[in-house]
Write a structure and sequence with these properties.
Blueprint: H1 33-41, H2 45-67, H3 70-86, H4 97-129, H5 141-156, H6 160-169, H7 176-183, H8 187-208
Helix pairs in contact: 1-2, 2-3, 2-4, 3-4, 6-8, 7-8
GO biological process, one term: DNA-templated transcription initiation
GO molecular function, one term: DNA binding
InterPro entries: RNA_pol_sigma-70-like, RNA_pol_sigma-70_dom, RNA_pol_sigma70_bacteroid, RNA_pol_sigma70_r2, RNA_pol_sigma70_r4_t2, RNA_pol_sigma_r2, RNA_pol_sigma_r3/r4-like, WH-like_DNA-bd_sf
Length: about 220
């Protein structure tokens, strides 16, 4: 079964807010990707439109094959091209525009999968720690406030790189790749720092609240 993104009456892309995927390329569009890359680097909106028309469908199909969800694939495709426009001034560092765009899409897929895994792990930790959890009683408010204060102190006591990675991760709009770029390390190293930081915090929580189970 052939998958295709949702269509739109107006498929012309707007810089900063990528158009919907699936527009058909003009028959006379014969400019090479090298030429389009160079023009994009100067802020040429027409070049961006041509790049989108020629690559949006293959990128969408690639992403859809990885996530098996057309709506999610459409969102990731849109985000990829919106990001491409936002970093157009970096095109002089790009060798292959096609490879670069597919790599951007691939990274976004992996970021989504990592975020989903973290979310599921967190939800499981909450269920494991509080299998019979109920809404807190009024007299537990002070305990919750104290716990938040302790959490901030424990984070401040983490090793520098772990604290930096965890603090950046708490910024919801930063991906693992962006954190890695900021910290000048690999995304895998970022993940290791975050995992170790979370393990330490769970251990500290277990010391403060023995009734809360921490990781072995």
């Amino acid at each position: 079964m052939t998958m295709s993104p949702s269509s739109s009456e107006d498929s012309t892309p707007r810089p900063g807010a990528a158009p919907r995927a699936g527009a058909s390329p003009p028959e006379d569009d014969e400019l090479s990707f090298d030429v389009l890359r160079n023009r994009l680097g100067t802020g040429d909106e027409a070049a961006f439109e041509r790049i989108f028309r020629r690559l949006s469908e293959p990128v969408f199909r690639f992403v859809c094959g990885m996530v098996q969800d057309e709506a999610l694939a459409h969102d990731i495709t849109q985000d990829t091209f919106a990001k491409l426009w936002s970093i157009r001034d970096r095109m002089d560092t790009v060798d292959s525009l096609q490879a670069y765009v597919f790599q951007m899409a691939r990274n976004r897929v992996y970021n989504h999968q990592r975020d989903e895994a973290v979310r599921r792990d967190h939800e499981q930790d909450v269920r494991d720690a509080h299998p019979d959890a109920s809404p807190p009683a009024p007299d537990e408010t002070l305990d919750a406030d104290l716990l938040r204060s302790l959490l901030e102190r424990w984070i401040a006591e983490l090793p520098d790189r772990q604290r930096e990675a965890l603090t950046l991760r708490r910024q919801k709009d930063l991906s693992h790749d962006e954190i890695a770029e900021i910290m000048d390390v690999s995304p895998n190293t970022v993940n290791n720092h975050i995992v170790r930081a979370m393990r330490t915090l769970r251990e500290r929580l277990g010391e403060y609240r023995p009734d809360v189970r921490s990781e072995p």
